[in-house]
Design brief:
It is a single chain. With 138 residues, the protein is mainly alpha-helical. The chain has a single domain (3-112), classed as Winged helix-like DNA-binding domain superfamily/Winged helix DNA-binding domain (Arc Repressor Mutant, subunit A). It has 6 helices and 5 strands. A 3-stranded antiparallel β-sheet has the order 1-3-2. Strand 4 (132-133) and strand 5 form a beta hairpin. The relative contact order is 0.16. Residues 78-84 have low confidence and may be disordered.
Length: 138
């Protein structure tokens, strides 16, 4: 990867929590909008819920920025039991990471790793993942 593309990716940092969670949801497979929201909600234990405006507005900006792209979706969904892939399969838009999106996600995760390492060096964040503060451990 050239220094210019790496700089482009790092120029988008830090990501918003919404953008980071959308990229993470797409890191292992392409998903439709509802599937992205469901994966984020499940992975965060319900702490982050992406409403339609937030989710689809963010996806539009991410498509425009080259981080994600629309895709055809998985072939097995198109061949569901009824042959239609579900009642709204034709309306679903699927998304996947682009190569640039993968680089941005990797750069953000490296940035966050550095933050955690700094916190650990200062004795504020134990390697166990528990937060250490003046009043004790959380």
């Amino acid at each position: 990867m050239g220094a210019e593309r790496r700089a482009d990716a790092e120029g988008l940092l830090p990501l918003t929590p919404v953008a980071l969670n959308i990229l993470l949801a797409l890191a292992d497979e392409e998903r439709h909008g509802y599937g992205i929201g469901a994966e984020v909600r499940e992975r965060t234990g319900g702490k982050m819920r992406l409403g339609p405006g937030t989710l689809y507005g963010s996806l539009k900006r991410m498509v425009d920025g080259g981080l994600v792209e629309e895709s055809e979706g998985p072939a097995e969904e198109e061949e569901a039991d009824d042959g239609r892939g579900g009642y709204d399969a034709g309306r679903r838009r699927y998304y996947r990471l682009t190569g640039f999106g993968e680089r941005v996600l990797a750069a953000e995760l490296a940035r966050l790793e550095d933050v955690v390492r700094t916190a650990q060096a200062k004795g504020f964040f134990a390697p166990s993942g528990r937060v250490v503060y003046r009043g004790g451990v959380r």
